[in-house]
Amino acid sequence: MQLSNVLKSKQAIEVSIKIIDVFVQLRTMVLSNTEIRLEVEKIKKKVDNQDKNIEVIFRYFDELLEQKAQPRNQIGYKISKEQ
User: Fold this and answer.
1) Model-wide pTM > 0.90
2) Taking a C-beta distance cutoff of 8 angstroms, is the pair 17, 24 a contact?
3) 1: helix, strand or coil
4) Is the pLDDT score of 83 beyond 60?
């Protein structure tokens, strides 16, 4: 409707009406098509699970950084300097 408000011509009004019709048809198609809605729900679930997995990964990173900060016991042979 914005186009017809600015231009005030018959063609502008027709284009604005067609644009509105397209959006109404698109909305109706998406709402009525259960397959598309199911696919969207699947995608939402995957994204939610990925968020949880990313949180777990960052927790593991934090744990690894804490472990790295702690001094480690040396293993192996120790050569004395007295020889």
Assistant:
1) no
2) no
3) coil
4) no
